[in-house]
Automatic annotation (TrEMBL):
GO molecular function: tRNA (L-threonylcarbamoyladenosine(37)-C2) methyltransferase activity
Highest taxon, organism lineage: Bacteria
Protein name in UniProt: Putative tRNA (Adenine(37)-N6)-methyltransferase
Provenance organism: Amantichitinum ursilacus
UniProt keyword annotations, A-Z: Methyltransferase, S-adenosyl-L-methionine, Transferase
Taxon lineage: Bacteria, Pseudomonadati, Pseudomonadota, Betaproteobacteria, Neisseriales
SUPFAM superfamilies in the record: YaeB-like
Length: 235
């Protein structure tokens, strides 16, 4: 940006977040809803200096500023939020849709650990971002100014109903098989499916869905009350 051209902004990612979510389908619609979803961020040079994160360990949660890189350039003035059944349109600035004029997002995550042994590596839980998301900034969460218990939340009237998650015998066996490689896999599957990631219009109990977590394709069905995990197929 220059004094003569105040609109000429250029942003450089400080790193790319590694997450279990191989694609957009199945990602929690808000951060912290899947506590077993872990993200790892290795800072890129020249930001990978220990002094850049000095003092951050004193905070339990941080804000991640990121880029909706898979929807960049695809903005719309109105969107259909899933919380409204996918039928009612509201303005893009009245929701958290990724289809924004400037594809920027904020995500509140729990800071699990910081390693400065080789560069800077940060581990978070409760992530809601697709694998490879560019991270632009990290800021500490400060409860006394950012927590507003009396705030109005518009069309988001409380937490949605959750599904019961039932595993088939085969799926249970497969979770055990992958336990060493992905220690919290079963809990992560429950976190993801209990929130019913299906499109708002979906109501066919016989339809099979696939959610890609890590290197696995989790096959499941839903009758509107329960999510039935059938199998975990290697990709």
């Amino acid at each position: 940006m220059t004094a003569a051209d105040p609109t000429g902004f250029t942003f450089q990612p400080i790193g790319y977040l590694q997450t279990p979510f191989a694609d957009k389908f199945g990602i929690p619609r808000q951060p912290t809803l899947a506590p077993h979803a872990t993200g790892v961020l290795k800072l890129l040079p020249p930001y990978d200096r220990a002094e850049a994160v000095r003092g951050l360990e004193a905070f339990s949660h941080v804000w991640l500023t990121f880029v909706f890189h898979q929807t960049a350039g695809q903005w719309s003035p109105t969107v259909r939020p899933p919380r409204l059944g996918g039928n009612q349109r509201i303005g893009v600035f009245a929701c958290r849709s990724p289809f924004r004029p400037n594809p920027l997002g904020l995500s509140l995550v729990q800071l699990r650990s910081i390693s400065t042994d080789e560069g800077v590596v940060l581990t978070f839980s409760g992530v809601d971002l697709v694998d490879g998301t560019p991270i632009l900034d990290i800021k500490p969460y400060i409860p006394y100014v950012e927590s507003q218990p009396d705030a109005r939340s518009g069309f988001v009237s409380g937490e949605p109903a959750r599904l019961q998650v039932v595993f088939s015998e085969l799926a249970e066996q497969q979770c055990q098989r992958y336990q060493t490689r992905y220690p919290e896999l079963r809990a992560l599957i429950v976190d993801v499916l209990t929130q019913d990631p299906r499109p708002a219009y979906a109501d066919d109990p016989a339809r099979r869905y696939g959610v890609r977590l890590y290197t696995l394709d989790v096959k499941w069905r839903c009758d509107g009350q329960s999510a039935f995990v059938e199998s975990l197929d290697s990709l």
